[in-house]
Amino acid sequence: MARRKLLAEADIQARLAEVPRWTRDGDAIARTWEFEGFPPALAFINRVGALAEEANHHPDIANSWNRVTLRLTTHDRGGLTDVDFELAKEIDAL
Which domains does the chain show, CATH number per domain? Predict the structure, then answer.
């Protein structure tokens, strides 16, 4: 359960340095991708969904044709935990 402990602001800033393409978005971190069209965007969403299911940690997903925005937060804790940053790294590796 320690992994789901809310992070202090200093820890959040340190963890953001580990995922430089992600930005702070209130109580979450977010990143947007742009693809060549809808099919590759949807394929990406499906790959993210598989990771999320495996981790039992699910991002908020927004899709508009070729753009996908993911937002990670630990909903049951009301903010950011290590789990958010771990999943962000896994998503970045796709």
Answer: 2-92 (3.30.1360.20)
